[in-house]
Amino acid sequence: MGLVRCQFRGILWRWLQIFLERHIQAACGFCGLFETKREEIVIATKTHALTPEDFWKDLETSLAKMNCKYIDIYQFHQMNVCWKPGDGSGMYEAMLEAKKQGKIHHIGGTTHKIGIAREIVESGLYETLQYPFSYLASEEELKLYQMVKDHNMGFICMKGLAGGLINNSKAAMAFMSQFDNALPIWGIQRENELEEWLSYMKVTPTMTEEMNAYIRHEQDELSGNFCRGCGYCMPCTVGITINQCNRMSLMLRRAPSKGWLSEKWQKEMDKIEDCIGCGVCKTRCPYELDIPTLLRENLDDYRKVLRGERKV
């Protein structure tokens, strides 16, 4: 564990030394990584809290773990409601108090729900919005980007690779570079991925006719009712890993299929047979997908692939 932590620390510092003025996502376990050069780094992190008590607990945990005196952008995470002053929850008031105490500098929110996203922007209470945005964005999501910009807010783009469905990083970067108020967070996990994205800081891919045609083809292929893997539907009543099983057909064809055809994932896919059709997952899905139907369709396709009736 110590070796992994040291390697991660080295990778992140290498990134920061090249790219200090960019925002970075901060998980809660960096153990003092930011104790030096703090003024050169912009830290954005978030809280799942639904009560002021949990809000303060999360904030103090983040400050302690990162050995920081303040967080630049503190975000309510996965918002299902837009917290506002006087709504009786005390949540926005907690943000204001944390700002008054100097423990946070800016207030932000994250959501997968476009209606909530619009409300966050229109409220005038938030300085940043974090929302899924990629070259698979719908017309409504493109309008949301412009709305954020018009309100002079920062737009932090999560799911820039659509939860792993986009496998052409150059195309993803070329698309994103068209939006001057968009800050993508790519979800880097490996050093080779870090090298790839850093190379785009030196020579940024640009949109060409060929790139445009490729993206249009991708949009046609991936439009409609597909799972983005956000996980809002979880946990499942009977233990199905919905956010992966519900997009298995796409993952088999857009990622190395061997791992998805493993014994582990065969067992996970078999759990779909246990679905009782309770519909709880449907009520949670921000994209209003018919999850039980999609699960059965994915299971049917998966088994046909296993039997060799379909190629991937």
Blueprint (SSEs and pairs):
Elements: H1 2-18, E1 23-25, E2 42-47, H2 52-65, E3 71-76, H3 91-100, E4 104-110, H4 114-123, E5 128-132, H5 139-150, E6 154-158, H6 169-176, E7 182-184, H7 191-202, H8 209-222, H9 242-245, H10 248-254, H11 257-260, H12 263-270, H13 280-284, H14 291-306
Can you put this structure into words, describing what you see?
Helix 4 (114-123) packs parallel to helix 5 (139-150). Strands 1-2-3-4-5-6-7 form a 7-stranded parallel beta sheet, with helices on one face. It is an alpha/beta fold and 312 residues long. The protein is globular, with a radius of gyration of 21 Å. The protein has 2 domains: 2-214, TIM Barrel (Alpha-Beta Barrel); 242-304, no CATH class. It is 45% helix and 11% strand.
Keywords, separated by commas or semicolons:
312 residues, alpha/beta, TIM Barrel, 2 domains, seven-stranded parallel sheet, 7 strands
Brief rundown of the structure:
With 312 residues, the chain is α/β, with parallel strands linked by helices. The chain folds into 2 domains: 2-214, Alpha-Beta Barrel (TIM Barrel), CATH 3.20.20.100; 242-304, no CATH class. The chain has helices at residues 2-18, 52-65, 91-100, 114-123, 139-150, 169-176, 191-202, 209-222, 242-245, 248-254, 257-260, 263-270, 280-284, 291-306, and strands at 23-25, 42-47, 71-76, 104-110, 128-132, 154-158, 182-184.
